[in-house]
Design goal:
40% of the residues lie in helices and 18% in strands. The protein is α/β, with parallel strands linked by helices. The protein has one domain (4-245): Rossmann fold. A 6-stranded parallel sheet has the order 2-1-3-4-5-8, with helices on both faces. The protein has a two-stranded parallel sheet with strand order 6-11. It has a two-stranded antiparallel ribbon with strand order 7-10. β4, α4 (107-121) and β5 form a beta-alpha-beta unit. α1 packs across α6 (162-173) and α5 packs across α7. The protein is globular, with a radius of gyration of 18 Å. It starts with a strand and ends with a helix. Bound molecules: NADP nicotinamide-adenine-dinucleotide phosphate (NAP). Residues 8-15, 32-35, 39-41, 59-62, 96, 98, 112, 131, 133-134, 137, 140 line the site of NADP nicotinamide-adenine-dinucleotide phosphate. InterPro entries: ComplexI_NDUFA9_subunit, NAD(P)-bd_dom, NAD(P)-bd_dom_sf. One of its GO terms (molecular function) is protein-containing complex binding. Pfam families: NAD_binding_10. It comes from Actinosynnema mirum (strain ATCC 29888 / DSM 43827 / JCM 3225 / NBRC 14064 / NCIMB 13271 / NRRL B-12336 / IMRU 3971 / 101). This is NmrA family protein.
């Protein structure tokens, strides 16, 4: 049976892949994002977009790093989505979280913790999938840097393909609400600096990579807390597959 699935952040890095996965599973995707006329912070356009949807996948994001801004964004978006789903009888809200966010005190992660709390205490049946950093994370973190030196967080990850995340989110939204789903990670552990070095080798980027000193938070980021410690699923694709497919 064809379902109408709303994808919050459906124009983003993983969101585009989610929309493709929804459609290739034979369902209809409705994109909730400001560039498509739906703002999940103000609520503009949300009611019209949610009408008739069976499920929502939330992969909306914003580039804020301090705790206050991250809590404001993720808290408001989660509240608006829970209330919107409840108003329209949407039966399943699936949210993408990040492995290890309660063990690492990065400002952004406080927003992710609040998002999970609002959804898990809300009145709409829910599933939270925690995933590790995307293969695109190296590109996301190096694209912003200006000058010849790129400074990166001292982060240990087990990065995963956005296609693998997208496929899993679609399996989840079309199934029964699970609460906390088994986390999803990639196949190998890599530091963010290693990912960036491999990316730069592939793209011919000659900028120097340095690892930033980040004190206590840096130690938490490097500790392996962002890699899954218990039972988890592994994506099919490798970082080498991702690099090989890049158009340079
Ligand atoms: N990046 C990672 O490595 C990683 C790893 C694990 C989990 N996650 C989680 O995955 C999610 C998506 O991350 P991403 O890197 O794919 O994001 P992204 O590329 O930054 O995309 C952000 C998306 O959110 C939309 N958006 C921004 N403000 C909005 C608003 N007010 N209302 C509705 N939509 C809004 C954007 O829409 P427009 O295009 O219209 O601006 C865009 O579609 C986040 O929850 C993030 O925490 C990320």
């Amino acid at each position: 049976m064809t379902m109408k699935i709303a994808v919050a952040g459906g124009t983003g890095t993983v969101g585009r892949k989610v929309v493709a996965a929804v459609e290739s599973a034979g369902h209809e995707a409705v994109v909730l994002s400001p560039s498509r006329g739906v703002d999940l912070v103000t609520g503009e356009g949300l009611d019209a977009a949610l009408a008739g949807c069976a499920g929502v996948i939330d992969v909306a994001n914003t580039a804020v790093w301090d705790r206050e801004s991250a809590e404001r964004f993720f808290g408001t978006v989660a509240t608006n989505l829970v209330e919107g789903c409840a108003r329209h009888g949407v039966g399943h809200l699936v949210v993408l979280g990040i492995v290890g966010t309660d063990e690492v005190d990065l400002g952004y992660y406080y927003g992710k913790r609040l998002q999970e709390r609002i959804v898990s205490e809300g009145r709409v049946p829910w599933t939270i999938l925690r995933a590790t950093q995307f293969f695109e994370f190296a590109e996301q973190n190096t694209a912003r840097a200006e000058g010849d030196v790129v400074e990166l967080m001292p982060m240990l990850s087990q990065p995963v393909a956005t296609e693998d995340v997208a496929e899993r989110l679609v399996e989840l939204v079309t199934g029964e609400p699970q609460g906390r789903a088994r986390p999803l990670a990639g196949q190998e552990k890599l530091t963010l600096a290693e990912m960036a070095r491999l990316l730069f080798e592939r793209t011919g980027d000659r900028r120097e990579i340095r690892v930033r000193e980040l004190g206590e938070v840096g130690a938490q980021l490097a500790s392996g807390a962002l890699t899954p410690s218990g039972e988890h699923d592994r994506g099919k694709r490798t970082f080498a597959d991702y690099l090989a497919a890049l158009e340079v």
